[in-house]
Amino acid sequence: MQMPAPNQAILARKERIVARLRGVLPSDAVIDDEAETRAYECDALTAYRCPPLAAVLPATTEEVAAVLKICHEEGVPVVPRGAGTSLAGGAMPTADSIILGVARMNEVLETDYENRFIRVQTGRTNLSVSGAVEEDGFFYAPDPSSQLACAIAGNIAMNSGGAHCLKYGVTTNNLLGVTMVMMDGEIVEIGGAHLDAGGLDLLGLICGSEGQLGVVTEATLRILRKPEGARPVLMGFDSNEVAGECVSDIIKAGILPVAIEFMDRPCIRATEAFAGAGYPDCEALLIVEVEGSEEEIDAQLARIMAIARKHNPVELRESGSPEESAKIWLGRKSAFGAMGQINDYMCLDGTIPVSQLPYVLRRIGEMSKEYGLDVGNVFHAGDGNMHPLILFDANKPGDLERCEAFGADILKLCVEVGGCLTGEHGVGIEKRDLMVDQYAPEDLEIQMAVKDVFDPSWLLNPAKVFPLAASEARRMAAE
Amino acid sequence: MTPETEAALAEIVKSAEGPLRIVGGGTRDIGAPVVGEALSTAGLSGVTLYEPGALTLVAQAGTPVAEIEAVLAAEGQRLAFEPMDHRALLGTDGTPTIGGVVAANVSGPRRIQVGACRDSLLGVRFVDGMGCVLKNGGRVMKNVTGYDLVKLMAGSWGTLGVLSEVSLKVQAVPEAEATLVGRGMEAGAAVKVLSAALGSPYDVSGAAVSGDAALVRLEGLGDSVSYRVKRLLDAACAGWEVVEGEASAALWRDVRDVTSFAGRAGTVWRVSVKPSDGPALVAALGGPEAILDWGGGLVWLLVEEDAAARVRAEVARLGGHATLVRAPDAIRATIPAFQPEAAPLAAISRGLREKFDPRGILNPGLMG
Prior knowledge:
The structure holds 2 protein chains of 2 kinds. By secondary structure, chain A is α+β, with helices and mostly antiparallel strands. Chain A folds into 5 domains: 8-101, Uridine Diphospho-n-acetylenolpyruvylglucosamine Reductase, domain 2; 108-225, Uridine Diphospho-n-acetylenolpyruvylglucosamine Reductase, domain 3 (2-Layer Sandwich), CATH 3.30.465; 230-335, Alpha-Beta Plaits, CATH 3.30.70; 343-416, 2-Layer Sandwich (Alpha-Beta Plaits), CATH 3.30.70; 432-478, no CATH class. Chain A contains 18 helices and 18 strands. Chain A has a 7-stranded antiparallel β-sheet, with helices on both faces. Chain A has a 5-stranded antiparallel β-sheet with strand order 5-6-10-8-9. The longest helix of chain A has 18 residues, at 399-416. Chain B is an alpha+beta fold. Chain B has 3 domains: 6-172, 2-Layer Sandwich (Uridine Diphospho-n-acetylenolpyruvylglucosamine Reductase, domain 3), CATH 3.30.465.10; 176-257, 2-Layer Sandwich (Alpha-Beta Plaits), CATH 3.30.70.2190; 259-334, Alpha-Beta Plaits (2-Layer Sandwich). Helix content of chain B is 32%, strand content 25%. Chain B contains 14 helices and 17 strands. In chain B, strands 13-10-12-11-15-16-14-17 form an 8-stranded antiparallel β-sheet, sandwiched between helices. Chain B is globular and about 65 Å long. The two termini of chain B are 25 Å apart. The mean pLDDT of chain B is 97. Chains A and B meet through β9, α8, α9, α11 and α17 of A and β7, α7, β9, α8 and α9 of B.
């Protein structure tokens, strides 16, 4: 993965830049020691690393503004960082950049049940947002699988999803307002506790912009009352096609499950060996979860199982208790760990139209043979968001490159069948150079023109999202 | 001008020498009046892709909303966000188009449960101010590939580009619906009940105060709706009347289309505030006739022509935004239709318009 060469003039000014940052932050909030900056050299895309010039950990919006103002004046690139759980390299620094971490900004600022929102500083973790309201029976709906660790700032930057977004939507559908600091240090407020923006939908534009338009320091989030209960049914099928048809029939029947998860045979076998959840040994497995009162759940599951029976399942197991639910979810929740037990893996994130599922799985199987690398598929079937896990050996020369080439081919396939490169992880550096497969040059040009408006000097997370060649002129002009 | 292909649309914009007034069906005449040659998308019509099993539909921008609703109804599906029909309120005729719905981000009572039009919008194709055909998003439900210009285009009122095609997530029509109706409460008390219902686990899909009635809607499987109605009658909505099926649907059509303000004198404002601020806003304005939707947060006001300054000041004080939806031409020429933005946001909006439409020819001035 290529990154732009660091700006030598900035490296030479390190001392002065750090001194200026120390002038506006407490001394322990500026990290420039080479051993300590290593903590920020990568995010969850660990194959690529580079320590930043320095890292700063402001505690307030005003401190963020002060930092950005200095970096703007000094012409130093800034890489915003939530909790560093990005799988796409969204928080990966360059040697001439400042990491701006929001980890110290984790306060709940306001909770309002009557109007059903919570306002938080964005360094707060996803799970602890729900944690702040759960005693009162509420929750924050988007639930990325890293929710224990990941920060709201990163959720907003990447427009994160989760297993339950089939019913509740992703981050952008649950975000009501933000306080954001522009690259020049100006603080702006967008949206609030009311619904929908006045004027152009800048809130919708900010969400998912991968920290390239501004640094979001506070967020107003929609909270919902927890459902009375939830229970899944597990079903096994002897072909991916049949499982795909079953998903389609459930959706067409007008039932809206809160989640429809899919696993294929390689993934089922790996998780069985790892977690022993008691899954059937079959080609495809679905976990369908519904919510409501006990009676409502019974009624919905009865309908879903009636649909499943028409497709001759090899297994149909309805959960009748929290213990049985936990067992059904056990394998799915340990899928990544199970694959990691076998080997190193790369997790992809393309989305496809649900109707293309059987074809795409068949093609992935063929490509797996061509590349000589195993792949397991686990994904959110209700919305077509796939997570193929390609197994490789990081210690074997050439394996990572082969794995990346295979991954790129899978993502191109997703685009070819009418889908997209990334459903919830973001582009970052990982899929940057594939953007030309999804978008024409003019489609990328207008997106870069949007960045020109927010960050004319291209200092915010500059080497991400767009192919380096496409953004080069703008980044160079900034230097 | 009514091009019949996207290429022809692009050519018209490219060769335009002056301002263009972009229209779909011309039924939503809102915003500062635009002086310019009319460019209609009505010739770009037809559903181009519909996959009921994937809950997705793609249509050309000029496709009549009624045609889309008929296509969806044949498969037991619908547009989740319940778009308003503005014709009665604004006294317009013409055929509402899906492009118009998207350009104005038109959303109805179900907005509180399933989101606005922008939340159902998966992808767009449009022609920018230089005549360049652009696309963003796609037809899948989860997509974070690059910037989300899809949401930016929703509610941009044709000022950033002329929509040529939209891709939407759709929803199954539920088996049953019922509305709980409570009467005789003043607005503040009614909104408190709506908040309690919306804060319940019963997935309320409509919560409004219209006339002397407070309304709470439930939709879903038949048994489920019965159960939830009973639970709400046992608690927040004790003593309320229950209206089911078509009678319930008719109540919500009236809320959605602001029917009770149609054909009556006065200017109409559409205000978005925090739900509990809705009754306070109405009271602060001296208690004009109002409809409170979205649990109290969407306030439709029927007021005197000279109320503009007071409406704007109160909304600015509470936080939110007010749109002048219906007024005589003289008022529309002087009062900005959309809530003036704070200076830094106004600068961003202006900057975006300059990028998407450098010549300033697409609905110039409509949004201010």
